[in-house]
Amino acid sequence: MTLPDPVHPAWLPPEAFRAIGSRRTLVLGDGLLAGTVHDEVADACARHGGRVRRGAGDGPHDLVLALTTAEPLPGVAGEVRPGSAIGAEGYVLARRDGVTVVLADEPAGLLYGLFHVVRLGERAFAGERQAEHHRPAMRRRMLDHWDNVDVHPVMGQVERGYAGGSIFWRDGAPRGDLARVRAYGRLLAACGVNAISVNNVNVHATEAHLLTDRLGDVAALADVLRPYGIGVHLSVSFASPVVLGGPATADPLDEDVRKWWAGVTERVYDAIPDFGGYVVKADSEGQPGPFAYGRDHADGANLLAEALEPYGGVVHWRAFVYNHRQDWRDRSTDRARAAYDHFAPLDGRFRDNVILQVKHGPVDFQVREPVSPVIAAMPATRLAVELQVTQEYTGQQRHVCYLPPMWREVLGFRPWGDGGADVAELVGGGDLVGVSNVGDDPYWTGHPLAQANLYAFGRLAWTPGTDPAAILDEWIDLTFTPATPSGTANGDAEPAGTAETERLRRTLHAIMGGSWRTYERYTAPLGVGFMVRPGHHYGPDVDGYEYTPWGTYHFADRDGVGVDRTRATGTGFTGQYPPPWSQVYESLDRCPDELLLFFHHVPYGHVLHSGSTVIQHIYDTHFAGAEEAVEARRRWQEAAGLFDPSLHARVERLLDEQVRCAEEWRDQVNAYFFRKSGVPDLRGRRIP
Ligand code: GCU
């Protein structure tokens, strides 16, 4: 497919299709997505000299992509057909007698199988391969766009967007570049994403109309995303009946309100038969919700779920609910407690097609937070875990911050300790949702290296146990060196690349692999969070939120720092976890260092497990983090000849900014704590 110029091909450069495009392929199966598979292969063949047949075709073939229902399945494909169901999006991959076979029960599985073959490149056509079953761990792998249709006076076109404007909307209207939207859908399918919501969870006046009179704009997006298996969802206002000319109330128990939602939803499905459902932020940060009518979140969510139920649609009801008008003098209110306090008592009350969408941490996408206790508290409720791919609090796509190591920790967290289920298993079969980091920037994500976060989000949603370093390799190979693959996250082994390729890989690993921890080192220490400039959230401001109503405090004084969230003397938040974590976090001795200030208020001289004091840890990590940013820039400068010059120049400029900002963080945080505590740096470094 030809990309709208001058858009970067990201992880699907034409070269990545060489292995397929230079061979003979048979595609067997009907349906829209099987058509996409055929067209993808045909495109690759036109470029690289191979050929593709659809339906019955004369052999020989190097690659067969077939639905299990196809009759007859040619030789090898028939032999590897499994006895049991493969599953809706799954596929079987095998290679025997010189033929590579992808078998799927449904066309979506063929599409994902095709992209698996793309990832393997030449390795897909070498040797023999025992039949492997691949199926996604998460049923829905979804990106939420916080895109506004109108330019919002404060938040702009994309709320918390760092990659230019929206790819869907511009200045109050559809952007009209459907080729770009289609290219986006293709990239998403290639990393396993199968759903998106197309507008901001804060639904402003114009955006509310997407549900009714502007539904055609949503249908147009659904039409171009459908061939890549991407379902479209819509953020809706809970006050829709009132703001869109329906009943004068949005009371979820009002009969007219129920009828209004039923009618509107019916029209949505008339226009978009495979519509995914509604995303709702209610009674949160000023958004309307059921509280206005004395109802609770279950009443609110069930109202919309009832309307969607006949069509198989779902409601993603967000658990990000807290008091954003808190009195900072009141030490008993704790924002971290809020989601659990609101939702845990409602477990069991939600309809089957309500999915409670929980931010991965209890506060707000900080660089370090514990896992939200809500995830372990709702056994009778379907859950989605929400990650922030857009780097609101992690450098805003001006800093390199490869997030999968953090996501891996979240997904691998075991709320009941060793032997209990981890988060991925708890949500297993459910949803992983990411707030998208994409905009109309030529590199899609502003920072070219932030593409890796988007890619990895999809891959982790498919296989949550994958090693982030292996995903990074996979992304590097597809994006930068498609002709010389080193291996994939599926564990396939690797022919060595050229010396240049190896250098390129080493450079990107050095810069990206540990970048999340680097970012953590030079920003807010030991899990305390925030310390960002209010409003836009970029750069340091240690007391920026300290005396505000937002509920995000660090309580630093001359003696110590941190939030006492213990049951014994603090807000009691630790009690929202089951054992062992309720005890581990409660205990000053056992609490992990990196979360110490999230759970405890301690003196600056408190000794960490690492052997360092809190104050010395703050100094050391801030010096180290800023140095690591300088080192990343040095590595990048050294690698100039290995990358496309304009991409290299863009990243170099961004690394200059990262170094500047990291040094600002270092100096502000260190100076702040030196002035508060009066404790000098043991190593006598300059603290301004
Ligand atoms: C953060 C972010 C907001 C966003 C909110 C949400 O607070 O700063 O812009 O609206 O999260 O997740 O709803």
The kinds of small molecule bound in this structure are:
alpha-D-glucopyranuronic acid
Q: What is the CATH C-level name of the largest domain?
A: Alpha Beta
The radius of gyration over CA amounts to: 26 Å
Question: What shape does the CA trace take?
Answer: globular
Low-confidence runs of at least 5 consecutive residues: none
- Could you name the CATH topology of the largest domain? TIM Barrel
Mean pLDDT: 96
Q: In this structure, how is the largest beta sheet organized?
A: 8 strands, parallel, barrel
The tally of beta strands, per DSSP, is 20
Q: Describe the strand arrangement of the main beta sheet, using strand numbers.
A: 7-12-13-14-15-16-17-18
Structural class: alpha/beta
- What is the number of domains? 3
CATH superfamily of the largest domain: Glycosidases
How many DSSP helices?
21
CATH-derived architecture of the largest domain: Alpha-Beta Barrel
Query: What percentage of the residues does DSSP assign to strands (E)?
Result: 5-15%
Q: How far is it from the N-terminal to the C-terminal residue, by CA?
A: 55 Å
In helices, the fraction of residues equals: 25-40%
